[in-house]
Description:
Elements lengths: L1 E6 L2 E4 L4 E9 L9 E7 L6 E7 L4 E3 L7 E6 L4 E6 L8 E8 L4 H5 L10 E2 L3 E6 L1
Parallel strand pairs: 2-11
Antiparallel strand pairs: 1-3, 3-8, 4-5, 4-9, 5-6, 7-8, 9-10, 9-11
Amino acid sequence: xxxxxxxxxxxxxxGGSLRLSCVASVASDHNYRPYLMxxxxxxxxxxxxxxxxxxxxxxxxxxxxxxxxxxISRDNAKNTLYLQMNSLEPEDTAMYYCAADFRFSAxxxxxxxxxxxxxxxxxxxxxxxxxx
Length: 132
């Protein structure tokens, strides 16, 4: 129902910035956008974790590690999700994935989920490497 394509990853030094983008291509027979969209990451040997998520009502949720450094935004006209990452640290090194889900709920309206299991659609990922 939707294909997600991430871009913007790369290698930076600690303290640097990157901006990730995710273009969502919705099937032509769909008349609505994903309700939830978010950024997740997975480092080698670790489980996938939520970084920042948002819903169509403009609510956002950030992981503690992202608060104050990362900003998620969504351009509905362009069907694009962004993640501005500042003050990057070596601990931010991971594959970053864009995810989406169409399902609505009262809870999701209040707090966009950071749980990977709440998302049905995933991109291929973009690598972010931060050196010290």
